[in-house]
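User: Thanks for the earlier help. One more: Transcription elongation factor GreA. Can you show the sequence and predicted structure together?

Assistant: Of course, both are below.
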Amino acid sequence: MTLQGSRALEEELKHLKGEMRPKISQAIAEARELGDLKENAEYHAAREQQGLVEARIRDIEAKLSNAQVIDVTTIAHSGKVIFGTTVDIANVETGEEVTYQIVGDDEADIKVSKISVSSPIARALIGKEEGEVVNVQTPGGLVEYEIVEVKHL
């Protein structure tokens, strides 16, 4: 995972443990005071939310404990596409340029131009260098991209 991805998970974990847990505990305590727990919707909703938050906390802790964090800014620039780099590519046929950062599966978000290292585009780009042309199999057919620039951001 990238350094930014690791930091984002740590922030989410801090929020869940420091803010959400106490709020949910308070909501459960207040719901208990309302009486009969069998028919207490507030109590059941708070307990369900507590289960979801605790599951997310365990999930984040497991990811962070097993993650290998890579800070691409500390790696010498060689012009080669590696995990964590930001890559400008141009469609050979149309000339349209796009920029992607290659990240771990959990960090991938196409809306912010972060693609998973296991995506077809990333797999085609990894190991290639600036100026090379790569073929990417897409649902619409084979597309050729030229690697315009590789950045270590």
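User: Great, one quick takeaway?

Assistant: Residues 3-32 form the longest helix (30 residues).
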